[in-house]
Design a protein that fits this description.
This protein is α/β, with parallel strands linked by helices. It is 33% helix and 26% strand. The protein has four helices and four strands, in the order βααββαβα. Strands 1-4-3-2 form a four-stranded mixed beta sheet.
């Protein structure tokens, strides 16, 4: 795995919907527990949005991805990331029926 590239840009996830296929690249439970949102995957790179850089999950991520993949890390707002996970797991989210 190539070294991670940490971007200084901030990404808005206001209208983003989690993709199960993208999240399964790193493991749905792993991404949920560490609040990592996979937003893009190509043959050479995976782009993730996080709130803080932490070595403990980064080393675990290296273990799961193919060695030729580069990780691009972009910062996101903690509240928006939390809302993405809540929105995805809300059974009433689409029809707003409570």
């Amino acid at each position: 795995m190539k070294d991670p590239e940490c971007g200084t840009e901030n990404v808005s996830l206001r209208h983003f919907t989690l993709s199960p296929s993208l999240q399964s690249l790193i493991g749905e439970r792993f991404s949920m527990n560490n609040r990592i949102v996979v937003v893009e995957d190509s043959s050479t790179e995976i782009k993730v949005v996080v709130t803080e850089k932490s070595l403990h999950w980064l080393t675990d991520l290296w273990k799961v991805l193919p060695k030729e993949k580069k990780i691009t890390i972009v910062m996101g707002d903690a509240i928006e990331i939390e809302k993405v996970f809540i929105r995805d797991n809300d059974p009433y989210g689409e029809n707003n029926c409570r």
